[in-house]
Amino acid sequence: MNKTPFVSFCLTICLLMAIPMGCSDNDKNKAGDSSVKATMPANSEPTQTQQATSLQPTESQPLASEQPKEISIVSPDIVLSETNNLSNPKATKEANILYNYIRDIHGDYTISGQQESTWNGTPDYEMNYIKDITGRLPAIRGLDYINEDFDGVTQRAIDWWKQEGGIVTICWHWGTPPNGVGYESSKGTIDLEEALTPGTELNQGMLAQMDRVAEELKKLQDAGVPVLWRPFHEFDGAWFWWGKGGSENFIKLWRLMYDRYTNVHGLNNLIWVLGYSGEVKDGWYPGDDYVDIIGADNYSEGTQVAKYNKLAQSIGTEMPIVYHENGPIPDPDEMIKDGAKWAWFMTWHTIHIMEQNTPVYVDKVYNHDYVITLDELPDFKKL
């Protein structure tokens, strides 16, 4: 994927014609400190004082999108396939095509991803920021049913797939059953054994919440949108209610949702993403019949190759392995060197993209040959 910007031509004209065209070193972006650490919990909604503001370029630091640049839309040489390699034998054509694409690029490229926020005036807050400094957009948009913004999340997912041609991943900061809502509630505690006992009041309340989100996922299926579905994330960290009951109860809970969504609700558009915390603890795996993609997250610098290797050793490399949440984006050159073959990365919102990564660094990542951006995705709907 040739992403070389249209800068060499400008330099040649400057030298040959001796006409001042802003080609001095003073016009280049200056790299800042990329080691800024976030003070906000990785999955929390920031308070007013914690909200990050867009980094504005000075006159001597033009936005990437304002600089002359050749952007070649070149996709990896991959033939899209409908072959069913998913855990669900009834998976939709769209889900199979997307999954096979991810399997095929795994090890040769990494797909760029960005989690959205919704409280900064526009849900495109992070997307606009990335576009302004890189001239590109992430291939994967991360969404969250966190505050029962069902209509908004579902519509943005449809628009991202159908209008933008991008990939959708959705998680859910599920408040404690039977009626909890939001991030703080998701960190609560319930009797998970009671919740998993059919017929109990807590069980019925939990299933009612589960079924409500199934209604939204059904709308996405009806619209032809495959979803990288990442429920119960960071389960082995045991800071959310779904992980506090131990590994055996978590496995039961995961299988319960899988069975209910697949066999009761007929949700065949889901690609099931098992998202470990950065700890990647043993004994939490629900089984190959219930998982399509496996991953870990972390908010520290580096390629996190040790976590990649641990996942690869436990599951093999046939299944895609992903970096489903990050703060600092791993350096593509270092990923290649270390062998950290994450099929995608997904940077968390606000301060994580804007303060844990400098604009110059984000520009480098999004214009790197190893990184697939939105404009380089194949037309999944073509097949």
TrEMBL record:
Keywords: Glycosidase, Hydrolase, Signal. GO terms for molecular function: hydrolase activity. Belongs to the glycosyl hydrolase 26 family. SUPFAM superfamilies: (Trans)glycosidases. InterPro entries: GH (IPR017853), GH26_dom (IPR022790), Glyco_hydro_26 (IPR000805). Residues 41-64 have a biased composition (Polar residues). This is Glycosyl hydrolase. The active site is at residues 234, 325. It holds the Pfam family Glyco_hydro_26. Residues 93-375 form the GH26 domain. Residues 30-68 are annotated as: Disordered. PROSITE patterns: GH26. Residues 1-25 form the signal peptide. It comes from the Bacteria.
